[in-house]
Amino acid sequence: MEVLTIAATVAGILGFLYILIIGQKSIPEWFRERKTEQNGKKAPSQPVASISLPSRVIQHNLPHRGDFIGREKEKKQVHEALHSRSFIITIDGIGGIGKTSLALEVLHECLAASQNSQPVANGAQPFDAFIWTSAKDRELSINDVLDVIAHTLDYAFLTQLPLAEKRHGIVKRLQEKSCLLIVDNFETVTDDNVHDFVLNLPEPSKCLITSRTQSIRLARAVSLRGMEEEETLLLIKNEEGRLDINLDALVVDARNFQRFYNATGGAPLAIRWSIGQIKQRGQSIEAVLNSLYGASGDIFEFIFERAWSLLSEASAKILLSMPIFAYSASKAAIEAASDVHQWELDEGLGQLVELWLLEASEKLDESKRRYTLHPLTRAFAQKQLVANPELEHRARIRLAAFFEHFAKAAGGDKWAWEKYDEIEEEEDNIFALLDWCFENGEETTGMNLTKAVTFFMTVRGYRHEAMKFGRKAVDAARQDGKAADLAWLLVYGIGWREINGGDLEHGEALVREGLHIYEELQDHQGIRGALRRLGRVHLYKSNFALARHCYEKGMTLAKASSDELAIASFERELALMALDEGKFVEAKDRLESILPILRNRNELALASTLGELAATYRRLGQFDTAFEFAQEGLELAKTMKRRETMSWISLSLAHIEAERGNYQSALVLAQHAEDFFERSALFHDDQEIKDIKTLIDDLQTKLAA
Predict the structure, then answer these.
(1) DSSP code of 695?
(2) What pLDDT is stored for residue 24 in this prediction?
(3) What is 10-50 written as a DSSP string?
(4) Mean pLDDT over residues 406-424, rounded?
(5) Which CATH number applies to 59-223: 3.40.50.2300, 3.40.50.300, 2.60.40.1880, 3.40.109.10?
(6) What is the β-pairing status of strands 370-372 and 328-330?
(7) CA distance 434 to 412
(8) Which pTM does this prediction carry?
């Protein structure tokens, strides 16, 4: 008994110690935890893998930022203002003090924070979108502001609405996500509607304004004054290195520096311009300082005048040509507009860049380098150009001829999409030039340029511009009696656009007029094009007999000329008609028969044909095959940036996925299709968008069940 008592006592003591040390765990569990703790203590010596988060896609149209020196205090103030409850923030100060540069630096920091979705050291405020508008070199109306917002947020269809509806639509978008609207040079805005719009900006969006005046009492203001002396020294040293110039006489000589600092007032633009003058031949520091001190009124106007007097004849001609461009220009385009060539062009551009009259992008490839004017320089050059209207007129005519040739070489008047990105880089310049041509008695020049970009505008979704310039080009062709040009524009330009997304009856009338002209000209290729489009009109009207008549007549002409692609195009139209008639096997066979031809010779038509083949297989109940064809067509359309094709193939894929039971995937695709259609206004009527919304609602209900 004593032995048992002792054993029990020992067991009790051991049990107490077990619970005290190990707790209510098994021995193996306790050892495993101990091993984990030991490994954890060694962990700091092991490298920790960093997690790289994908960047968010943030919509913006921010201009590029350049070198930025100093202004840390002001940057912090702007960031704090953007973080605050204030919905209007202003950066105000005199002209040339660096308001725009500061705004761009802060905005690009905010953009980086928004894209990375991570906190950054400078406390930048993230936004869902950044919309830049500027009134520096033109009147800025409420219509302009609303259009820029619509384009930046990819709701281009809003630009075609009446002003009240457009404003309502924009306000709705600004309420949906946090957008930062920027109005640069606000003091020049004379449209009271812009003021009212800014003052009533809906939450959660905000507005950042740069202005020479403190005119908005509700705003949280950051007033910008001259740079500190230390910052000015840093800026001078930066320019010294960039321009490869010795500025010791300015930096080391305290008296010279103080005179320079006082004369410029620490304004960054004046500092850079002054050093540009020092770089120029014959301009000593003393001469520049004397010029600065002798100025009255606007110091920058005086500096422009001094720089102008030093320009070579070639440099002056180049500078005068620059206001013709909407924003930036390539070297080749500048050569065409200025009529300055070869080494004189290189020397002239070099002198203008050295004097900061032009700014060049950092592209090493000369053919891709872009040249821009600072808005103040643009204003000065524009003033000189207005005094010489004949020079401006000749420059614009030369530039229009250049862009016509340029666009044709890039396939803008053909279904050759491979170089359309080159045209898109010049879209602002081309569209601005077309406006000028049609408004200044150069309708024939405008017509030729319109033809050169017609197919580009169609493929890339510039629907509004295609109709606007197409109609004016048609009027020009009528006035000039250019029958062939008129027929081409009627059939391939505005007629086709009206049929696909506009007024079907009007489109039919235009194409019939074009067909009549082609018949008189005995142009069989033109007749085929018109017959194909008339057939599509009848197909949309479900008049299959008339559609078949057009297609068969066109097919006969195509076979007579042994045009393989033309034959394939009519086979495709007949397949679409068979699909509408419920003859799914016939439609499938016709479409599959032309795939090899299109894969080799016409990728634009191939993308649409793959989508149509997917729709056919879906009607046949073969959903897996349908999905494969639709996916291939969508990827090809994305490669070509053909938004219209992307829209309806996404919708087709949504239906296919829904029928396969993949409701989440179907919902995403349907939402993409809705977004494409709404942004581009590509649907013929409201029924198509209603059908998409019905599909989305149905899918959401199924997912919630």
Answers:
(1) H
(2) 45
(3) HHHHHHHHHHHHT-SS-HHHHHHHHHHHHHHHHGGGSPPPP
(4) 92
(5) 3.40.50.300
(6) antiparallel
(7) 15
(8) 0.62
